[in-house]
Amino acid sequence: MRNPNPGSPTSNSEYGGLAMTVVAIGPETTGVPCAQCVTGAGGNNIGLPWPVFTVQQGETLTISTWFQSSTYTGPCTVGLILKNAGTIVTTGSYPWPGGCEAGYLYGVIFTVPVPTETGPTTVIGQIAGGGTNKSGTVAFMNVQ
Fold first, then answer.
1. What are 9-29's pLDDT values in tens digits?
2. Tens digits of per-residue pLDDT, 122-144?
3. Domains in the chain: ranges and CATH
4. Residues in CB range of 96: below 8 A, 6 or more apart
5. CA 18/CA 133 separation, integer angstroms
6. What is the Cα–Cα distance from 1 to 123, expressed in whole angstroms?
7. DSSP 2
8. How far, in Å, CA of 64 to CA of 141, rounded?
């Protein structure tokens, strides 16, 4: 979706124009996540499954990752990492077809089974462009 306020280049050399902005965990739900789909909402909007913290083994989750390419144009790949007690239990990635374009908002949805490992689990969404251009956002869930 087109970002109405794409921003301008920044002098901060640590920011390369790509930023992961949201990682949301919810039950697998038809019709969402979606972009520009919330009836009555103005401006840019997203619809999400109800965000949850506690999840049960055997369930399937929708993990929504949303990011902004404010000034970066080029190849980009979205990644997902789930860690339980410091051990990676699930990973996923999605190279954006044709790359990212400056001035746009993007979303990538991962459908994953709840890990079999119980306890606190870190959910990391990442966006990576060329070179060291990377950004990530963290969410948490508790597997029962």
1. 444 446 788 999 999 999 998
2. 999 999 998 788 999 999 999 99
3. 18-38+46-143 (2.60.40.10)
4. 75, 76, 77, 78, 106, 108
5. 7
6. 24
7. B
8. 14
